Fold this sequence. Notes:
Two copies of one chain form a homodimer. By secondary structure, chain A is α/β, with parallel strands linked by helices. The first copy, chain A, has one domain (2-40, 47-147): SPOUT methyltransferase, trefoil knot domain (Alpha/beta knot). Chain A has helices spanning 13-27, 48-65, 84-96, 113-118, 132-147, and strands at 2-7, 32-37, 71-81, 101-105, 121-124. Chains A, B: Belongs to the RNA methyltransferase RlmH family.
Amino acid sequence: MIQMIVVGALKESYLREGQQYFLDEISKREDVELIELEDEKVPETASEKELTMIRQIEGQKILSKVNRLNTMIAMDIDGKSMTKDKWSNLFEQHRTQKKGMTFIIGGSVGLSDEVKQRANFRVSFSRLTFPHQLFRLMLLEQIADAIL
Amino acid sequence: MIQMIVVGALKESYLREGQQYFLDEISKREDVELIELEDEKVPETASEKELTMIRQIEGQKILSKVNRLNTMIAMDIDGKSMTKDKWSNLFEQHRTQKKGMTFIIGGSVGLSDEVKQRANFRVSFSRLTFPHQLFRLMLLEQIADAIL
Protein backbone atom coordinates (compact mmCIF):
# COMPACT_ATOMS: atom_id res chain seq x y z
CA MET A 1 0.00 0.00 0.00
CA ILE A 2 1.39 3.30 -1.14
CA GLN A 3 0.20 6.47 0.53
CA MET A 4 1.24 9.90 -0.66
CA ILE A 5 0.57 13.01 1.41
CA VAL A 6 1.12 16.33 -0.30
CA VAL A 7 0.43 19.97 0.51
CA GLY A 8 -1.30 22.21 -2.01
CA ALA A 9 -3.40 21.58 -5.09
CA LEU A 10 -2.01 21.24 -8.61
CA LYS A 11 -2.76 24.43 -10.52
CA GLU A 12 -1.88 23.49 -14.07
CA SER A 13 -4.01 21.02 -15.99
CA TYR A 14 -0.95 19.28 -17.46
CA LEU A 15 0.20 18.46 -13.92
CA ARG A 16 -3.19 17.07 -12.94
CA GLU A 17 -3.28 14.95 -16.07
CA GLY A 18 0.23 13.67 -15.42
CA GLN A 19 -0.64 12.86 -11.82
CA GLN A 20 -3.68 10.86 -12.93
CA TYR A 21 -1.59 9.04 -15.52
CA PHE A 22 0.89 7.83 -12.90
CA LEU A 23 -1.78 7.05 -10.27
CA ASP A 24 -3.49 4.83 -12.84
CA GLU A 25 -0.20 3.09 -13.59
CA ILE A 26 0.58 2.50 -9.91
CA SER A 27 -2.92 1.28 -9.05
CA LYS A 28 -2.54 -1.55 -11.57
CA ARG A 29 -0.11 -3.15 -9.14
CA GLU A 30 -0.73 -1.73 -5.70
CA ASP A 31 -3.30 0.13 -3.61
CA VAL A 32 -2.47 3.80 -3.74
CA GLU A 33 -3.93 6.70 -1.79
CA LEU A 34 -3.20 10.35 -2.53
CA ILE A 35 -4.05 12.85 0.20
CA GLU A 36 -3.89 16.45 -0.91
CA LEU A 37 -3.94 18.88 2.03
CA GLU A 38 -4.93 22.50 1.69
CA ASP A 39 -1.91 24.76 2.01
CA GLU A 40 -1.80 27.69 4.39
CA LYS A 41 -1.81 31.16 2.91
CA VAL A 42 1.74 32.54 2.85
CA PRO A 43 1.87 36.35 3.22
CA GLU A 44 4.32 37.88 0.74
CA THR A 45 6.19 39.57 3.56
CA ALA A 46 6.16 36.56 5.86
CA SER A 47 8.85 36.65 8.56
CA GLU A 48 10.95 33.59 9.38
CA LYS A 49 8.81 33.15 12.49
CA GLU A 50 5.62 33.17 10.41
CA LEU A 51 7.10 30.68 7.94
CA THR A 52 7.99 28.36 10.81
CA MET A 53 4.43 28.61 12.07
CA ILE A 54 3.02 27.79 8.61
CA ARG A 55 5.33 24.79 8.39
CA GLN A 56 4.15 23.64 11.82
CA ILE A 57 0.45 23.94 10.97
CA GLU A 58 0.94 22.09 7.68
CA GLY A 59 3.14 19.55 9.51
CA GLN A 60 0.41 18.79 12.05
CA LYS A 61 -2.07 18.20 9.24
CA ILE A 62 0.38 15.85 7.51
CA LEU A 63 1.15 13.85 10.64
CA SER A 64 -2.55 13.39 11.42
CA LYS A 65 -2.99 11.63 8.07
CA VAL A 66 0.00 9.27 8.09
CA ASN A 67 -1.00 5.62 8.10
CA ARG A 68 0.76 4.39 11.24
CA LEU A 69 1.40 0.93 9.86
CA ASN A 70 3.47 2.43 7.06
CA THR A 71 7.08 3.49 6.83
CA MET A 72 7.16 7.27 6.59
CA ILE A 73 9.42 8.72 3.91
CA ALA A 74 9.84 12.49 3.75
CA MET A 75 11.12 14.09 0.55
CA ASP A 76 13.79 16.54 1.69
CA ILE A 77 16.55 18.22 -0.33
CA ASP A 78 18.91 17.64 2.62
CA GLY A 79 17.91 13.97 2.86
CA LYS A 80 19.79 10.93 1.67
CA SER A 81 20.72 11.18 -2.00
CA MET A 82 19.08 8.37 -3.94
CA THR A 83 20.53 6.19 -6.65
CA LYS A 84 18.44 3.78 -8.70
CA ASP A 85 19.79 0.87 -6.63
CA LYS A 86 19.01 2.40 -3.25
CA TRP A 87 15.54 3.34 -4.44
CA SER A 88 14.80 -0.17 -5.76
CA ASN A 89 16.09 -1.74 -2.54
CA LEU A 90 13.78 0.43 -0.46
CA PHE A 91 10.78 -0.92 -2.38
CA GLU A 92 12.10 -4.48 -2.44
CA GLN A 93 12.44 -4.48 1.35
CA HIS A 94 8.91 -3.25 1.83
CA ARG A 95 7.56 -5.77 -0.63
CA THR A 96 9.27 -8.60 1.26
CA GLN A 97 7.95 -7.36 4.62
CA LYS A 98 4.52 -6.62 3.13
CA LYS A 99 4.80 -3.17 4.71
CA GLY A 100 3.20 -0.01 3.30
CA MET A 101 5.01 3.22 2.49
CA THR A 102 3.91 6.81 3.05
CA PHE A 103 5.64 9.46 0.96
CA ILE A 104 5.45 13.09 2.01
CA ILE A 105 6.01 16.23 -0.06
CA GLY A 106 5.75 19.54 1.78
CA GLY A 107 4.23 22.76 0.49
CA SER A 108 5.99 25.80 -0.96
CA VAL A 109 7.62 26.65 2.38
CA GLY A 110 8.89 23.13 3.03
CA LEU A 111 8.47 20.58 5.82
CA SER A 112 8.43 21.27 9.55
CA ASP A 113 11.22 19.93 11.74
CA GLU A 114 8.70 17.71 13.46
CA VAL A 115 7.78 15.96 10.19
CA LYS A 116 11.46 15.52 9.33
CA GLN A 117 12.17 14.05 12.77
CA ARG A 118 9.22 11.67 12.74
CA ALA A 119 10.07 10.37 9.28
CA ASN A 120 11.75 6.97 9.08
CA PHE A 121 13.68 8.11 6.03
CA ARG A 122 14.50 11.47 4.49
CA VAL A 123 15.16 11.17 0.79
CA SER A 124 16.59 13.59 -1.77
CA PHE A 125 16.20 13.17 -5.54
CA SER A 126 18.32 16.14 -6.54
CA ARG A 127 20.45 18.91 -5.13
CA LEU A 128 18.37 21.27 -7.25
CA THR A 129 15.03 22.43 -5.90
CA PHE A 130 12.02 21.71 -8.09
CA PRO A 131 8.62 23.34 -7.58
CA HIS A 132 6.74 21.02 -5.25
CA GLN A 133 4.03 20.61 -7.91
CA LEU A 134 6.39 19.32 -10.62
CA PHE A 135 8.20 17.32 -7.96
CA ARG A 136 4.97 15.43 -7.35
CA LEU A 137 5.15 14.01 -10.89
CA MET A 138 8.82 13.15 -10.44
CA LEU A 139 8.04 11.17 -7.28
CA LEU A 140 5.00 9.44 -8.82
CA GLU A 141 7.08 8.42 -11.83
CA GLN A 142 9.81 6.94 -9.62
CA ILE A 143 7.22 5.04 -7.54
CA ALA A 144 5.54 3.69 -10.68
CA ASP A 145 8.94 2.67 -12.06
CA ALA A 146 9.92 0.91 -8.83
CA ILE A 147 6.78 -1.22 -8.51
CA LEU A 148 6.04 -2.09 -12.15
CA MET B 1 19.42 32.54 -26.89
CA ILE B 2 18.44 29.16 -25.50
CA GLN B 3 18.46 26.16 -27.80
CA MET B 4 17.24 22.77 -26.71
CA ILE B 5 17.87 19.66 -28.79
CA VAL B 6 15.99 16.53 -27.80
CA VAL B 7 15.45 13.09 -29.25
CA GLY B 8 11.97 11.66 -29.55
CA ALA B 9 8.49 13.13 -29.49
CA LEU B 10 6.39 13.59 -26.35
CA LYS B 11 3.69 10.94 -26.32
CA GLU B 12 1.45 12.06 -23.50
CA SER B 13 -0.66 15.18 -23.87
CA TYR B 14 0.14 16.33 -20.32
CA LEU B 15 3.83 16.41 -21.24
CA ARG B 16 3.17 18.41 -24.41
CA GLU B 17 1.05 20.89 -22.45
CA GLY B 18 3.71 21.21 -19.78
CA GLN B 19 6.38 21.74 -22.41
CA GLN B 20 4.37 24.50 -24.03
CA TYR B 21 3.76 26.12 -20.66
CA PHE B 22 7.48 26.39 -19.93
CA LEU B 23 8.42 27.41 -23.49
CA ASP B 24 5.93 30.29 -23.19
CA GLU B 25 7.44 31.30 -19.85
CA ILE B 26 11.00 31.23 -21.18
CA SER B 27 10.17 33.11 -24.39
CA LYS B 28 8.96 36.05 -22.32
CA ARG B 29 12.60 36.72 -21.49
CA GLU B 30 14.74 35.06 -24.09
CA ASP B 31 14.68 33.61 -27.60
CA VAL B 32 14.17 29.91 -27.29
CA GLU B 33 14.35 27.17 -29.92
CA LEU B 34 13.27 23.58 -29.37
CA ILE B 35 14.50 21.03 -31.88
CA GLU B 36 12.84 17.65 -31.60
CA LEU B 37 14.66 14.96 -33.55
CA GLU B 38 13.06 11.74 -34.63
CA ASP B 39 14.36 8.81 -32.60
CA GLU B 40 15.69 5.65 -34.20
CA LYS B 41 13.67 2.50 -33.81
CA VAL B 42 15.14 0.39 -31.01
CA PRO B 43 14.63 -3.37 -31.59
CA GLU B 44 13.51 -5.11 -28.38
CA THR B 45 16.40 -7.51 -28.62
CA ALA B 46 19.01 -4.90 -29.56
CA SER B 47 22.59 -5.96 -28.85
CA GLU B 48 25.08 -3.58 -27.20
CA LYS B 49 26.60 -3.06 -30.66
CA GLU B 50 23.23 -2.08 -32.13
CA LEU B 51 22.55 0.29 -29.22
CA THR B 52 25.91 1.96 -29.80
CA MET B 53 25.02 2.38 -33.46
CA ILE B 54 21.65 3.92 -32.60
CA ARG B 55 23.36 6.33 -30.20
CA GLN B 56 25.84 7.26 -32.94
CA ILE B 57 23.14 7.93 -35.54
CA GLU B 58 21.13 10.03 -33.08
CA GLY B 59 24.35 11.74 -31.97
CA GLN B 60 25.20 12.77 -35.54
CA LYS B 61 21.73 14.28 -35.97
CA ILE B 62 22.13 16.19 -32.69
CA LEU B 63 25.57 17.55 -33.53
CA SER B 64 24.39 18.75 -36.95
CA LYS B 65 21.81 20.98 -35.23
CA VAL B 66 23.93 22.56 -32.49
CA ASN B 67 24.27 26.32 -32.89
CA ARG B 68 28.04 26.70 -33.06
CA LEU B 69 28.04 30.07 -31.32
CA ASN B 70 26.48 28.48 -28.24
CA THR B 71 27.93 26.67 -25.28
CA MET B 72 26.89 23.04 -25.53
CA ILE B 73 25.54 21.46 -22.38
CA ALA B 74 24.74 17.75 -22.40
CA MET B 75 22.42 16.31 -19.77
CA ASP B 76 24.17 13.18 -18.52
CA ILE B 77 23.57 11.19 -15.32
CA ASP B 78 27.36 10.85 -14.97
CA GLY B 79 27.88 14.58 -15.46
CA LYS B 80 28.61 17.23 -12.85
CA SER B 81 26.01 17.23 -10.10
CA MET B 82 24.21 20.58 -10.04
CA THR B 83 23.24 22.67 -7.05
CA LYS B 84 21.01 25.74 -7.33
CA ASP B 85 24.10 27.98 -7.02
CA LYS B 86 26.12 26.25 -9.73
CA TRP B 87 23.10 26.28 -12.05
CA SER B 88 22.45 30.00 -11.49
CA ASN B 89 26.13 30.81 -12.02
CA LEU B 90 26.13 28.99 -15.35
CA PHE B 91 23.31 31.24 -16.60
CA GLU B 92 24.76 34.39 -15.02
CA GLN B 93 28.06 33.82 -16.83
CA HIS B 94 26.33 33.38 -20.17
CA ARG B 95 24.18 36.45 -19.61
CA THR B 96 27.28 38.53 -18.91
CA GLN B 97 29.06 37.22 -22.00
CA LYS B 98 25.88 37.48 -24.12
CA LYS B 99 26.51 33.89 -25.16
CA GLY B 100 23.80 31.39 -26.09
CA MET B 101 23.33 27.96 -24.55
CA THR B 102 22.39 24.67 -26.21
CA PHE B 103 20.96 21.97 -23.93
CA ILE B 104 20.88 18.38 -25.11
CA ILE B 105 18.75 15.48 -23.90
CA GLY B 106 19.36 12.12 -25.55
CA GLY B 107 16.77 9.52 -26.47
CA SER B 108 15.79 6.38 -24.60
CA VAL B 109 19.18 4.76 -25.23
CA GLY B 110 21.20 7.78 -24.11
CA LEU B 111 23.87 9.97 -25.69
CA SER B 112 26.76 8.86 -27.87
CA ASP B 113 30.32 9.23 -26.63
CA GLU B 114 30.91 11.75 -29.39
CA VAL B 115 28.17 14.06 -28.11
CA LYS B 116 29.49 13.75 -24.56
CA GLN B 117 33.02 14.56 -25.71
CA ARG B 118 31.99 17.53 -27.82
CA ALA B 119 29.90 19.05 -25.04
CA ASN B 120 31.40 21.98 -23.10
CA PHE B 121 29.63 20.81 -19.96
CA ARG B 122 28.03 17.57 -18.85
CA VAL B 123 25.40 18.19 -16.23
CA SER B 124 23.48 15.83 -13.93
CA PHE B 125 20.28 16.80 -12.10
CA SER B 126 19.89 13.57 -10.18
CA ARG B 127 21.50 10.21 -9.54
CA LEU B 128 18.14 8.70 -10.38
CA THR B 129 17.24 8.18 -14.01
CA PHE B 130 14.04 9.82 -15.18
CA PRO B 131 12.31 8.97 -18.45
CA HIS B 132 13.77 11.35 -21.01
CA GLN B 133 10.26 12.68 -21.70
CA LEU B 134 9.57 13.74 -18.10
CA PHE B 135 13.15 14.92 -17.84
CA ARG B 136 12.41 17.41 -20.60
CA LEU B 137 9.93 19.18 -18.31
CA MET B 138 12.41 19.13 -15.44
CA LEU B 139 15.05 20.82 -17.60
CA LEU B 140 12.60 23.37 -19.02
CA GLU B 141 11.46 24.25 -15.50
CA GLN B 142 15.03 24.77 -14.32
CA ILE B 143 15.82 26.94 -17.37
CA ALA B 144 12.69 29.03 -16.82
CA ASP B 145 13.55 29.41 -13.15
CA ALA B 146 17.13 30.48 -13.91
CA ILE B 147 16.26 33.22 -16.40
CA LEU B 148 13.07 34.68 -14.89
